[in-house]
Amino acid sequence: MVSLIVPSLRNAFFAATADALQAALAQAGVQLLLGHNEYDPAREEALVRASLAWSPAALVLTGLEHSRAPGRWRSRAAPR
């Protein structure tokens, strides 16, 4: 399973990104977990925490601005 967090599903770019990633993952037999944060940093943090609870193979954050918390989680979630 791969988790994708986008700022908005109403934005055609992010919707197309989700569609393309889902199609590519499906060919490999991998499921996509999708969340959208509505450009809210606190919601993004909650979605990242929830996604990591599922132990995804990858976590994809899209958009230009992110809360600082995902960087801290990246260092804790990375294989050692």
Give the arrangement of secondary structure elements:
Blueprint (H helix, E strand, L loop, with lengths): L1 E5 L5 H16 L4 E5 L4 H13 L4 E4 L7 H9 L3
Parallel strand pairs: 1-2, 1-3
Notes on the structure:
The longest helix has 16 residues. It is built from 3 helices and 3 strands. The chain is α/β, with parallel strands linked by helices. Strand 1, helix 1 and strand 2 form a beta-alpha-beta unit. The mean pLDDT is 84. A 3-stranded parallel β-sheet has the order 2-1-3, sandwiched between helices.
Summary of the model, kept short:
With 80 residues, the chain is an alpha/beta fold. The chain is built from three helices and three strands, in the order E-H-E-H-E-H.
Structural class determined from secondary elements: alpha/beta
How many helical elements?
3
- Morphology call: flat
The residue fraction in helices comes out at: 40-55%
Distance between the termini: 20 Å
- Average of the residue pLDDT scores: 84
The residue ranges in which pLDDT falls below 50 over 5 or more consecutive positions are none
Strand order of the largest sheet: 2-1-3
Number of strands: 3
H/E topology pattern: EHEHEH
- Round the Cα radius of gyration to an integer and report it: 12 Å
Our estimate of the beta-strand percent is 15-25%
Please describe the structure with a list of short key phrases separated by commas or semicolons:
80 residues, alpha/beta, three-stranded parallel β-sheet, 48% helix
